[in-house]
Specification:
N-terminal domain of MutM-like DNA repair proteins; alpha+beta
Length: 298
């Protein structure tokens, strides 16, 4: 799924391609992509004659700001936008076509068909799902080490699933959480409540540095991601742990290990990110005696 750097890159390229252009008509070929309004015909009619003023990102969502309307679009697993001449043959899995008055189309293609589109009045999009459910933006000024600690520091759950929860930090996904934790030297299974102040500072710095570098590189094309101009991202060439199971860590040379945490593939360097679960001790410092297993009577 495209994460913050990929969606940010798509927003920037679409701004170059379609900002200032006017929608002549809309063709919806897969109605379930349209979530608000529920009727595809109403969706298409509302957009006719509207000019696309700008495109922005919120978390992993795109915000198309138009005349008196905002279109919120989620790419999900494999959604992508592209611009082409209106008379060009329509590719398979193209589900929504925005026909522009300059003779081009903005086309939404989605092989997995998981993408969504919502229409709102300006400002209303932040007050209702899906955007109202999102947490803090990791590249904004209010995302500080202290803010991150306040959000997660009291939680006993492993740090990685908490960072993946969009209600806490918006835009992070599997790739950049793995990369940020490695950069900070923190094991993904560490309970958030076990992190020390210096580790919160390192993690905050690692998240911001990793995301900024990925945005500068145009994101990571680890599967099918391309930007609005059909170009691949290049950050996958700089990945330290994600997708590198069995390969040497770029920091220490130890083989990267892949595990599963919270149902997500998780990549770790066992040397750079050590984690040993504490053993329970008796008051005298000895390990507690084993408790006999109770056997049910037959």
């Amino acid at each position: 799924m495209p994460e913050l750097p990929e969606v940010e890159t798509v927003a920037r390229t679409l701004n170059e391609l379609v900002a200032g252009k006017t929608i002549r008509a809309v063709t919806v070929r897969l109605p379930r992509i349209i979530r608000r309004p529920e009727e595809p015909e109403a969706f298409a009619a509302a957009l006719e004659g509207r000019t696309i003023r700008s495109i922005h990102r919120r978390g992993k969502f795109l915000r198309f700001v138009l005349d008196d309307l905002v279109l919120v679009s989620h790419l999900r697993m494999e959604g992508r936008y592209g611009v082409c001449p209106s008379d060009e043959p329509v590719e398979k899995h193209t589900h929504v076509l925005f026909h522009l008055t300059d003779g081009t189309d903005l086309r939404y293609r989605d092989v997995r068909q998981f993408g969504t589109m919502h229409l709102f009045r300006p400002g209303e999009e932040f007050e209702q799902p899906p955007l109202s459910r999102l947490g803090i933006e990791p590249l904004e000024d209010d995302f500080t080490a202290e803010a991150l600690r306040r959000l997660l520091g009291h939680r006993k759950a492993p740090i990685k699933p908490l960072l993946l929860n969009q209600a806490y930090v918006a835009g992070l996904g599997n790739i950049y959480v793995d990369e940020s934790l490695h950069r900070a030297g923190i094991h993904p299974e560490r309970p958030a409540s076990s992190l020390r102040p210096a580790e919160w500072t390192r993690l905050h710095e690692a998240i911001r540095a990793t995301l900024r570098e990925a945005v500068d590189a145009g994101g990571s094309s680890v599967r099918s991601y391309v930007n609005g101009q059909g170009e691949m991202g290049m950050f996958q060439l700089r990945l330290h742990v994600y997708g590198r199971e069995g390969e040497p860590c770029r920091t220490c040379g130890t083989a990267i290990v892949k595990t599963v945490l919270g149902g997500r593939g998780t990549h770790v360097c066992p040397v750079c990110q050590p984690y040993r679960k504490a053993r329970a001790r008796s008051p005298r410092g000895k390990a507690p005696a084993a408790i006999p297993r109770r056997i049910s009577p037959t």
